[in-house]
Amino acid sequence: MSAPQSFPSASLAYVIQVGALTPVAAAPVLFSVEAANLGNVISYGAGIFTLSAGHTYRCVANINACTFSGATGLATFSWRDLTGAALFGVLGVQGTPTSAAHVAQSGPATGIITVTQDTTIQLEAITLTAFTSLSNSSATVEVVG
């Protein structure tokens, strides 16, 4: 029987968006508050998460409310490995409902990444069509292996 893998039992960064935000395509989503940071293997600043080498991380972004200017609105979000220059995970997709406010909600953008060197990642907007703002959103990056 092999020894358990060594990593901090509680290593995560949790960031939230307070108020409205207007993301730019292919740029980091700038969460306004780092609400929690446990352990010492993940750091966050200016929209960028820095992950320490030798771990596997689960990344979850809850895109809770997008506002659109019309009924054709669409917004997609994904995680990007900046060090490896590649998108990873499953897109979070927001589409416009047929309501006067054009406010949409959808599932999270999620991803798993294993890094062998210190790596930077970001959540970014991929598609923004008839998009006005993003609000009440959050992201968690945590060590899972």
Characterise this structure.
By secondary structure, this protein is mainly β. It has a single domain, classed as Jelly Rolls (Sandwich). The protein is built from no helices and 14 strands. It has strands at residues 12-16, 20-21, 33-38, 42-45, 48-51, 55-62, 65-68, 74-81, 86-95, 103-104, 109-115, 119-129, 131-135, 138-143. The strands form three sheets. It has a five-stranded antiparallel β-sheet, with no helix packed on it. Strand 8 (74-81) and strand 9 (86-95) form a beta hairpin. The chain is elongated and about 45 Å long.
- Largest sheet descriptor: 5 strands, antiparallel
CATH fold topology: Jelly Rolls
How many helical elements? Answer: 0
Question: How many strands appear in the DSSP assignment?
Answer: 14
Strand order of the largest sheet: 3-1-14-6-11
Please indicate the percent range of residues in DSSP E strands (runs of 2 or more): over 45%
The low-pLDDT segments are none
